[in-house]
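Standup notes
- DV: blocked on the single-chain target, sequence here:
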Amino acid sequence: MSSFDVAVIGSGPGGYVAAIRCAQLGMKTAIIEKRKTLGGTCLNVGCIPSKALLDSSHHYEHATKHFPDHGIEISGDVKPNLEKMIARKQAVVDQTTGGIDFLMKKNNIEVFNGLGSFKDATHITITAEDGATSEIEAKNIIIATGSYAGTLPFVELDETRVITSTGALELKEIPKHLVVIGGGVIGLELGQVYNRLGSQVSVIEYGDRIIPGMDSACSKELMKAMKKQGVKFFLKHGVTSVKNTGNEVVLKVNDKKGEEVEFKGDYCLVAVGRRPYTDGLGLENVGLTTNDKGQISTNGHLQTSVSNIYAIGDVVAGAMLAHKAEEEGVLVAEILAGQKPHIDYNLIPGVVYTWPEVAGVGKTEEQLKAEGVAYKLGQFPFRALGRSRASADLDGFVKILADKTTDEILGVHMVGARCADLIAEAVVAMEYRASAEDISRMSHAHPTFTEAIKEAALAATDNRPLHV
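- DV (later): unblocked, structure below
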């Protein structure tokens, strides 16, 4: 039987990063993955493939709608080839997961393919796809098994007409009408992919706004932008029935007045969140349980009630984000090495990769109001930037919330071009407890999108933006 200092169950961003950091710190490390390829949901059927399709569909939209504005003339019809887009997406996935294989070999991490299950607190049984079993021993074990697509109790997912994000990444045709249940990140990103390619897209959201975890101003701005792109939104609508009738999907929905209405589409994407994946782990064999959300309870060091077993990422409380899982993986590895790392969960940024992009970090305005914190607000529109006008990316804004007395930045929220990258400046500033005035006095290259952050800081400091 092979013995290890650390065994990681799950090879998503949290798991493989935890394994790498453990190996860097001198621990003999193993990683166990039930899929044939490493990388978990994120690299195989989540973050990476969805961004590949978003990028391909963005190119198509530019060619059909925006090239003429830039003086680019194309003779003949421009047509989307979904089969080639899906193939390119898969090539990106294969290259990325192959990169994880390389990193495992580089760091001398032993990889086991199969379902990992606790025999006891230090032994894991690994069941391969063909049913063969093996066993390893580990002093410490990190659970990093991620999550799976959630659904509604009355919805039967078939991945043909009634699909999750996994099915949406493998469609054989462009839907005529894609009905999306859920106005969160996954539904909006994949809805935008197919809207660009010519689908009618209808988003049905139970709540009173889309992307409810973000600042409400961002929700309004993104919905306004996506409406201009042709996406239809139905807020305060509750789905009660979803039926695949063969060539179409019929949904029964209670509208905001409580009256039943019907939606019909050839495909229905169910995007109502995700659930922690703990099936088959054998938690009962080590005395671990999950709460009503399916999460494993941990302490501030991500240690479970069994002292040598830790849990990270989507199976524990907090945002289900790949980068949050990575930080937790590093934290556990460094704790096992006797170090004293920390994570400030308030400074884990959230991003929506639609176009315009949405990003935020820190407190939202709603949270500050609820907590009774006195704050001041500075906001600057992208359309006032020369760089935005040059690229015709005019939608959106940067919004900075700062403490009314100390001027310390409490939250930064933005909608617009490249916000997924721009938010890092806010994270750095807030990690060092910068004030709005600190950012306002820093030189930002001209012309860039980052100037919007400086201008919003000027507005928050003493209401003196330069370009509005």
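- Follow-up: The first strand starts at residue 2 and ends at 9.
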